[in-house]
Amino acid sequence: TRVAQPLAQPGSSGAQAADASLLARAGLPPTTTPYDNYKFAPIREAEVSRAMTRRYFNDMDEFAESDVVIVGAGSAGLACAYELGKVAPHLKVALMEQSVAPGGGAWLGGQLFSAMVVRKPAHLMLDELEVPYEDEGHYVVVRHAALLTSTLMSHVLKNPNVKLFNATAVEDLIIKPDVQLGGARRVAGVVTNWSLVAQAHGTQSCMDPNVIEAGVVVSACGHDGPFGATSVKRLARLGMVPGGEVPGMGALDMEVAEGAIVGGTREVVPGMVLCGMELAEVDGSPRMGPTFGAMIVSGRRAAHVALAVLEK
Ligand code: AHZ
């Protein structure tokens, strides 16, 4: 039986005393916890360095050709990675996140509030993840948005075929003419840079990027803002946005917005699937504000759209 260890109490002989009383209360035999003379196994500094860098550079080598590149690890991008892990765990998925911390806006429910609202039936994902919620009839409330996000992330990152490149920004797209499409252009991968490098382009003369080839790119960068809608903005500059212009997301209408995002999740140009709020930029559909069901369902749908693209 494992018993949670309480913090050492002031005036006691540290964790040992606290543990002893806890074990007694739990009706378990006393034991000693060796915190006072705690001894770590030996290590050398170079070993630590190599343990990290070897894996990172092996991953860069391995994922230079990925089946799926997901741009943005917010709620939509994570839901896409989760679904891919479920239905096609053998695929190599590179998850690109410009922030150190993945999760995007999903650490909070809205403004700076901890609770997150999920409209039914998107709450079925919470059942699947065993994330508890309060049922309010047409919607559910997760007490801590962070619990949903961290649970989703833990599922995603346990898949050995997923590599999260955090603090890595997608700066551009690889676009190539495709013979199968009669020479029409398709998205064939992404151009990346460590985010700190990407932020310093204005101060250095030459900091060239890296590249990842992909069978399909799923962009989930969120709506326009300092970091959002990267892929949509680039497609627009290249004259590849369907309809020729980016209307930008519409004003808030919760009732309409979520259905529009899920319904619109698709391959917007050959080789690129859009999901989550980035899609509203192209479709001009309304924003939904702080309700997250559509992000989850759109991300999951994007996984299936991406699989269909790979199978073409
Ligand atoms: O850091 C961004 C965030 O984690 C990341 N990202 C953006 N540009 C990137 C780039 N390279 C790598 N060039 C990039 N990563 O993408 C993630 C987007 O997450 P998000 O939470 O902003 O978007 P989402 O579509 O998953 O969820 C949107 C949540 C919103 S916004 C909204 C409203 O404003 O009304 N309502 C909801 C539910």
Automatic annotation (TrEMBL):
Which residues does this entry mark as bearing 2,3-didehydroalanine (Cys)?
C206
Binding positions (substrate)? A76, E97, Q98, G105, V170, D208, H223, M277, R287, M288, G289
List where in the cell it is found.
Plastid, Chloroplast
Please list the GO biological process terms of this entry: thiamine biosynthetic process; thiazole biosynthetic process
Q: Which cofactor does it need?
A: Fe cation
List UniProt keywords, sorted A-Z.
Answer: Chloroplast, Iron, Metal-binding, NAD, Plastid, Thiamine biosynthesis, Transferase
Under which main EC class is this enzyme filed?
transferase
Q: Which GO terms describe its cellular component?
A: chloroplast stroma; cytosol
Modified how: During the catalytic reaction, a sulfide is transferred from Cys-206 to a reaction intermediate, generating a dehydroalanine residue.
- Molecular function (GO) terms listed? cysteine-dependent adenosine diphosphate thiazole synthase activity; iron ion binding
Gene3D superfamilies to which the protein is assigned, alphabetical: 6.10.250.2840, FAD/NAD(P)-binding domain
Report which reactions are catalysed by this protein. [ADP-thiazole synthase]-L-cysteine + glycine + NAD(+) = [ADP-thiazole synthase]-dehydroalanine + ADP-5-ethyl-4-methylthiazole-2-carboxylate + nicotinamide + 3 H2O + 2 H(+)
What EC number(s) are associated with this protein in UniProt? 2.4.2.60
Question: Does the record bear Acyltransferase in its keywords?
Answer: no
Quaternary context: Homooctamer.
In which family does this protein belong, per the annotation?
Answer: Belongs to the THI4 family.
Q: What does this protein do?
A: Involved in biosynthesis of the thiamine precursor thiazole. Catalyzes the conversion of NAD and glycine to adenosine diphosphate 5-(2-hydroxyethyl)-4-methylthiazole-2-carboxylic acid (ADT), an adenylated thiazole intermediate. The reaction includes an iron-dependent sulfide transfer from a conserved cysteine residue of the protein to a thiazole intermediate. The enzyme can only undergo a single turnover, which suggests it is a suicide enzyme. May have additional roles in adaptation to various stress conditions and in DNA damage tolerance.
Protein name per the record: Thiamine thiazole synthase, chloroplastic
- What lineage is this protein's organism placed in? Eukaryota, Viridiplantae, Chlorophyta, core chlorophytes, Chlorophyceae
**Originating gene:** THI1
